[in-house]
Amino acid sequence: MNAMLELHGVTKVYGEGAAQVTALQDIDLTVRVGELVAVMGPSGSGKSTLLTIAGSLEEPTSGSVVVAGRALAGMAYDQQARLRRTAIGYVFQDFNLLPGLTAVENVAIPLELDGMPARRAYAVAQEALAGLGLAERGQHFPDDLSGGERQRVAIARAVVGDRRLVLADEPSGALDSVNGESIMRLLAGIAAQGAAVVLVTHDAKLAAWADRVLFLHDGRLSNRVATPAGVETLLEPDAP
Amino acid sequence: MSVRHALLALLSQGPAYATRLRLDLQQRTGELWELNIGQVYTTLQRLERDGLVREDEQGGDARYFALTATGRDELDRWLRTPPPLDTPPRDELVIKVLVAVDVPGVDVADVVLAHRQQVVEAMQAFTRIKASADSEDVALAIMVDAELFRLEGILRWLAAAEVRLQARPPALAPAIAGDSAHHPEVVR
């Protein structure tokens, strides 16, 4: 199975009558295993809605969403919740770590919710932290971590338990560009290890890490897709 | 970046011969800067003529060059001198977008998006260079960052142009691409 995420004709409409707003219109998108895809668009373009629908946090008004080969429509609520815990990881702009829990406890939460015994969940969480260079930071509370470390904890939480669809919404948040770059290095590495990563951002320096960059405008995806130019084109003095 | 000053910078670390200098230069610029050995020799000869480098005795077979005190002073001066920061008098991309507004049958939004796509593609290519390089290679990262920030500036300008074009009242359309001399703030 190659496609990890498929959106077919996804439309999302909020409100009714005169107050009706079409956030997404007829979106078709397939993200394969091993792929890092970025969606760029200005604020209000529907980027975040695209991500919440892809992650089954919201239902489309019409169209279908397929995650890991399974259509979300018609799936019972608890089945969807289980799919979210086991297959889908989220990385948010503001990290969303629980302040009263240590780093390793934050990462272990989705595993424990899924019924894994606490001791084993902690061991797996600690391993995920170590994989992101945070082996020594597991016992620290979020307040004791730097912004870059907090986001790495959030990424560990998103991928722990071998989840293969990672959805990231402006993951570098307020981090400076060098720390933002290290977040993108991690997400690219996660994709290379066999996950599908979808990133929504307005920051082209982050999007440039992607294999494909899509442009979203007023809820529609453009048919123009950016894929890396050959290095030889960079040698021309006036490439753009 | 000037080849002259790049060579002075390399020689500030000690005497070296031309082929070594050419290799170092290419490595430091992520091999984006193609230089042939002739360019390096010619530049070294001019630097020698101007008293900024001299031939080093230690050489043996190869011809070693070393920085002179004057060369060192010139390097220090150059490192701290700002390059011209004004934009070129005619930015071709600005002109293309402005002209597209007025060409019948051309969807200016698509012209803008086509350029955005190409700029992002160049940024992706630069990012690949950074991603595949040794993360300890600070010089390369700094050089690639310079290109990325420059391209990002173009992209932000294109995005702003797109928003303005979307928001513009139809009646004003011809005025935007009219005689550009009336819009010195837009076209320089």
* Named CATH architecture of the largest domain in chain A: 3-Layer(aba) Sandwich
- Counting DSSP E segments of at least 2 residues, the number of strands of chain A comes to 10
- Could you give a short account of the major beta sheet of chain B? 3 strands, antiparallel
- Helical fraction of chain A equals 25-40%
Distance between the termini of chain A: 38 Å
- CATH fold-level name of the largest domain in chain B: Arc Repressor Mutant, subunit A
Q: How confident overall, as mean pLDDT of chain B?
A: 82
Q: Label the overall shape of chain A.
A: globular
**Helix tally of chain A?**
8
Model regions low in confidence, pLDDT < 50 over at least 5 residues of chain B: 173-188
| Major sheet: arrangement of strands of chain A | 6-7-8-3-9-10
CATH class of the largest domain in chain A: Alpha Beta
Report how far the terminal alpha carbons of chain B are from each other: 24 Å
Strand content of chain A: 25-35%
**What Rg of chain B, in angstroms, do the CA atoms define?**
23 Å
Largest interface: A-B, 29 and 35 residues
Q: Looking at this structure, what is the CATH superfamily of the largest domain in chain B?
A: Winged helix-like DNA-binding domain superfamily/Winged helix DNA-binding domain
